[in-house]
Amino acid sequence: MMGADNLRADPIRSPWDARGLPADAVEIRMVAPRSAMPPAGRYMLLALGIAGALLSLRFLMLGAWPVLLFSVLDIGALAIALHMFDRSAVPEERLRVRDNEIELVRSDHRRREKRIVLPAFWTRLEISGRSGVDHNLWLVFRQQRHPIGLCVSAEERRNLEPQIRAALASARG
Q: Which 8-state DSSP code applies to residue 19?
């Protein structure tokens, strides 16, 4: 579960901030949880890799050389996968509510951004869910439905709902 500092609705204090948002704008930032491997975990993984290589050396001496080859390939593939995971960006969503518009910006793990701008007055927030565990949020404008909070858990979406409702109400005036 993410901490409260990853989900926040920040009213901006200065008349204009560095991004050019007016003072009464609200931005809600939703970041996917990311569990980075601590250094102790990396050392443990390295130790297990060395132990696996030493164990496969025993099979090499018995004449079963493919065991060593596949052991090295497995450990190498795991190292490459962990390196790629460590370098990838964390998916996030930003919901900005300004005077007359709502802007939803999504960035994925490849840092590609998708930007959706909707009029604040005609956009509503819908909630759907099949059970108490499931909680989906949607921004709805005419026939367009845009999901919100795809990168956070259902509990965090449930906590975000009042903040988004208040931001929409303040944008409508």
A: T
